[in-house]
Amino acid sequence: MQDIVWKPDSPRAILLATDLDGRCDRALDRAVALAHGWGARLVVLTVIEPAIAPPPRPGEPTRLRASEAALRAAARLRRDVGPTAEGLDVELVVREGEVGASIAAVATESGCSLLVTGVARDALFGRHLLGSTVDWLARHSRQPLLVVRDRAHAPYARVVVASDASPSSARALDVARALFPDAATTLFSAFDLPYLGMRDGDREGALEQARTAALQAGRELLLQHGHAGVDVAAARGDAAARLREFATGTGADLVVVASHGRSALYHLLIGSVAREILDASPCDTLLVPEPKARGEG
């Protein structure tokens, strides 16, 4: 049997949150691949709505028992996860309650330092997973959240980290490099020049000057945080749109963004259009929380 060796800076335990939909198989495959690569324990969780139990008859003692839905979910977890996660230290959990809070609670209880979920939508979760649940986790979770879209054909090879030169985006870069040190990484930022069309003089020169400043800010951030070998890139325009275009054009298989920051890119991820941005992402997305912001919201 091959020894499993935990790597420093890699999660000791990963929590996969699944609604048991077929699309979540991609998240399961990625979580299993990560757990194998890091020698981590894998906790697989599904959350169902609490069952409404009939009141006990007079004189009958109150009994706590699992609902039929919970029993069915547990059976499906054993059937679906067992063969895929063979050789791993796996824990299967079914919990009744509110989805976001249950995921966060199980992650804390089980010592998981990475959350993984898919883009599936299923009635078990009550609402679209990429709507309220991811938005809730982005606001409240203490762990990075990996939203899986693509099949796990290979380890992540090209990573794009969004940056607005804030401490939050610097932390996102730190986490990306710690988790995926072998991936080719690019620090990407977007810039804009308001009222460019109303300016007189050398507009192209002004654009080039702004782009140079954005690239220099990225290089300074890399220098401050000791990340050698990371490329920098910048593009003018809407941050979310330019990020999608850059990730698609470079063949990135993972985009990393901070869930808190000082620019429009990060506020969008927390605001009402979080579903739009994540739905449009061309690849998997890792949301990295800022510890100081966990008490907010």
From TrEMBL:
<dbReference type="Pfam" id="PF00582">
    <property type="entry name" value="Usp"/>
</dbReference>
<dbReference type="GO" id="GO:0005524">
    <property type="term" value="F:ATP binding"/>
</dbReference>
<dbReference type="InterPro" id="IPR006016">
    <property type="entry name" value="UspA"/>
</dbReference>
<dbReference type="InterPro" id="IPR006015">
    <property type="entry name" value="Universal_stress_UspA"/>
</dbReference>
<keyword id="KW-0067">ATP-binding</keyword>
<keyword id="KW-0547">Nucleotide-binding</keyword>
<feature type="domain" description="UspA">
    <location>
        <begin position="156"/>
        <end position="289"/>
    </location>
</feature>
<comment type="similarity">
    <text>Belongs to the universal stress protein A family.</text>
</comment>
<protein>
    <submittedName>
        <fullName>Universal stress protein</fullName>
    </submittedName>
</protein>
<feature type="domain" description="UspA">
    <location>
        <begin position="12"/>
        <end position="149"/>
    </location>
</feature>
<dbReference type="InterPro" id="IPR014729">
    <property type="entry name" value="Rossmann-like_a/b/a_fold"/>
</dbReference>
